Amino acid sequence: MTSFKENFVWILLITLCFFSHSSASYNPHRAEPATPKKLLYLLEPPVQVEVAGRRGDNVTLPCILRTKPNHYKIKWTKLESEHMGQQNVIMISNANAFKPYGHVGQRASLQRAHTMDASLLLSNVELGDDGRYRCELINGIEDENIVITLRIEGVVFPYQSERGRYKFNFHEAKQACAEQDGILSTYNQLYRAWTEGLDWCNAGWIYDGTVHYPVVHPRPVCGGELPAGIRSYGPKDKNHDRFDAFCFTSQISGKVENKL
């Protein structure tokens, strides 16, 4: 027969277990999982939008309004790589007019195919136009945006000085690509070239000032037996460090061959 003291201990333990379980299962201050913000004014694309074009083409980056607030502006911005941390405004428009900004803005206009159309027209696209663009509706209350990718079709090719391997600082690499009718490749362009078979052991500068080399077939003479992929040296000193270059162009004559 149990004593009153023993019964009291059991009741206390059961009570503590109950409140412990309750507090673990419900916490009014616990952060709930974030849900994507539903767009009120812009029509959200059903899938990630990528527009492709070649140098010299005219392209349209779609941005359609679902409904119009009473007062608003549309702002188009080109998003540079995260490493560079730049956002270049192309244009800002209202219902009556638009104001262009920068080099890209001089070749840009709004399509205005209908009253809900805020799509961006880019004429005579250049190699450097490749990248992500943001269409932003601004009304001071519920600002929202969508992002469109413009992919300039072309080819990435490794390039080194006629004086030999690893002779370019960043600025010289940039100039060398320009002399070959190209520009320094972006990381995304280099990655795409790697997926298509570019295999190169010499490290080279790319557009954002970082240095990489793509390896499809790992081998001892090409960085050891590390897995295939884009080998990276990260950002380097643009004035003093010297490497080759990875250039990008929309047209190339001859044939690029892989080498050790």
TrEMBL record:
It comes from the Eukaryota. Residues 155-249 form the Link domain. InterPro entries: C-type_lectin-like/link_sf, CTDL_fold, Hyaluronan_bind_Proteoglycan, Ig-like_dom, Ig-like_dom_sf, Ig-like_fold, Ig_sub, Ig_sub2. Pfam families: V-set (PF07686), Xlink (PF00193). Keywords: Disulfide bond, Repeat, Secreted, Signal. Disulfide bonds join C201-C222. Residues 1-24 form the signal peptide. Residues 45-149 form the Ig-like domain. This is Hyaluronan and proteoglycan link protein 2. Its main location: secreted. It is found in: Secreted.
